[in-house]
Amino acid sequence: MIVPHPDYRLNPSRAIYIFGVIDDDLIARLTPEILKLQSSGRDPITVYIDSRGGIVNCMESILRLLKLPDQNAAPPCRIITAVTSLAASAAADLLSSGDYAVAYPSTRILYHGLRTLQKSPLTLELTSTLVDSLRVANDAYAMRLAEKIDFRFRFRYMLARSSFDEIRAKNPAQEMSDLQCFIEHIRPELSEEAKVVLDKARVRYERYEELLETVFRKARHRKGKKSLAQLEADHINAIMAFEIKNNEANPSWSLTNGGMNSLVDDFFLWNEYIDNYGSERLREWCLMFGRWTFPAGMEAEMEAIRAIKDEKSRTDRLVEVVSPILQPISAFFVALCHTLQEGENELTATDAYWLGIVDEVIGEPLPTTRWIAEYRNDATAE
Question: What is the pTM of this model?
Fold first, then answer.
């Protein structure tokens, strides 16, 4: 049976309401309410959202207020976010920031890249500066989104694994990786708009892999210690060779005819990928999922790993064996977060669930961590 737990339940009597534009006026209205809730106890605070977004810094200020400790150094209140109609832009970021995020049916969640309004006329110098600053900011927000929804995406992946054998059986002519199976599993559940997001993320991930074959393979043969600038120069040379080879059949291709833009995009994609390739996130995925994702037919290897007494040596060996399986999933996840920061991406509540943005869609029979946390067998419940 299910025994309700306040950590996963919406509570209108202990809540704030994000309606309209997120700006300084909203902060002024909500600050007394948040502080009152903070001082009255440490129970979870529900944040109801119906907003087209607003100023990112204002959203972050509200989030910091919600995460305050008290004077007794008690930990912050748990935050449960819920979109009732619309969560767009900064409001979508706030939704995903909840410790437990909920979407009502028929709601819309809109993600897009950062924007800026300029009062002065655009010049070449100003435009170049804006491009660089927006690119850096979008990358930063993509990685922050990845941090917020990492566990939700992991949960989707682990639930999907039970279908992988069936998917492979339906596609005997292909040697389908776990990533291909995962995409095949969630794709039918998505709206047409979300399928576009999924496909863009897949293309971005495949570009990662193409760059890996050229840049990383060459990097392994370098000798001697080099400065960051020297390493980046090596990467650019390798990417340049990659671009030239890819465009051999296009006689009009050149750096001045669009090639420089491709070179710059690939350079940033490479850095985006390599930051994830050796990230702590991948190691955490391996340690959390290693025993469930261990390759079939290697049970003896698994037993040998379990027999290693030194904990660090044991975990290092597990990561070494499992990371080739989980690294593509982790890299695709990063590609997805970056894709959501580009263009206009309007998602349904169900889309948001399958992409890991929210934990639960109210009224939908989709597996949630709440089910696990609240489940009790009859004897335990009594």
Answer: 0.85
